[in-house]
Amino acid sequence: MDAVAASCAVPLVWPPVTVGSRRFIDGGMRSAANADLAFGFDRIVIVAPLARGGGPIPGPRSQADALRAQGARVVLVTPDADSVAAIGSNVLDPSRRAPSAHAGREQARSEATEISAVWS
Question: How is residue 29 annotated by DSSP?
Answer without folding.
Answer: G
